[in-house]
C-alpha cells in the first residue's frame, strides 16, 4: 500500500524534488526534466497530496495516477489540481519535456482571482478530462509561466503579488480558451454525452419508484456517465446553454405540468412522485420557473 505524503509548502516541495530553496515562499515554476530519476523512483512509492494549486504540463512516457484513474500522457497535456487532491506516478515514468507551476492559496488572498478561481472548473476535472494542447498553445502558456518566474525571481516589493497574480489570471484565461477549442473539436463525443444524459434523465423520471429514490442530483448523472460533475455541466452548457441542474429542473417542470393537467393527484402527491422530500420545495421551484403556483397552473385551462 502506498504511503500518503502531504506537502503543504513550496519550500518542502523543493526539498522533496531536490531543488534549491525557492525564491518566493508561495509560488514556483519547476522544470520537470531536471528532476533526477532517483527522485522520480522515490515518489513512485508514494501518493502525494499538495496543499496548493498545480498546473502541470507534461510530455512523457509512462502512467500517472490521478484520483482512481490511470492516464497515459503521450501528447502535450495539461493537468490541473486544486489543494489537497492526490496523484502518484508510475515507477517507469520517463519525462521527455514539461513544467509545473505550483502556487499556494495564500498568494491569491485579497485578490479578484482568489474570489473567482473556483469558477475555473477544470481544477476539479478527473484525469481523462485533462487539456490536450498543441505546440503553439504550449508556447503561449510557457511564455506566461516564464513571466511569472521572472517576476518572483526579483526582489519582492509591493507590486510583486499583483503582477504575479495577473499573469496567473492570464494563464487561466488562455486555458479556458483552449478548453473551449477542445469542446468544439470533440463535438461528436460531447453530442453523444448529451444524448446519453437525455436518455438517462427521461428514464430517471419514468421510474415508478422515484418517490423512494428522491430527486436526482448532478453527481448522480455524472457517476452514471463516468465523468466528473464539473465536466458534465461544462459540456451540457456548451451544447444547450443550460447547466445540468437547469436541465434536471426543466424535466421536473415538464413532468409536473403533465401531471397537474392529466391527473387528479394533489400537489403534494405530485411533489413526492417527482422525488421531492418537501412539497414546499417543489412549489417554490415550479413558481420560479413558470410564474405560477402549481395549484394556479392546474386551473389555467
Describe, in plain words, how this protein is organized in 3D.
By secondary structure, the protein is an alpha+beta fold. It has two domains: 183 residues, Jelly Rolls (Sandwich); 93 residues, Homeodomain-like (Arc Repressor Mutant, subunit A). It contains 13 helices and ten strands. A five-stranded mixed β-sheet has the order 1-3-8-5-6. Strands 2-9-4-7-10 form a five-stranded antiparallel β-sheet. Helix 4 runs antiparallel to helix 5. About 2% of the residues have low confidence. Keywords: DNA-binding, Transcription, Transcription regulation. It comes from Spirosoma sordidisoli. InterPro entries: Homeodomain-like_sf, HTH_AraC, Tscrpt_reg_AraC-type_HTH. GO terms for molecular function: DNA-binding transcription factor activity; sequence-specific DNA binding. It holds the Pfam family HTH_18.
Which features characterize this protein?
18% strand; five-stranded mixed β-sheet; 2 domains; Arc Repressor Mutant, subunit A; alpha+beta; 13 helices
Shape call: elongated
**Count of discrete alpha- or pi-helical segments spanning 4 or more residues:** 13
Count of domains: 2
Helix content: 40-55%
Domain HTH araC/xylS-type: 217-300
Protein name: AraC family transcriptional regulator
GO molecular function, one term: sequence-specific DNA binding
InterPro entries: Homeodomain-like_sf (IPR009057), HTH_AraC (IPR018060), Tscrpt_reg_AraC-type_HTH (IPR020449)
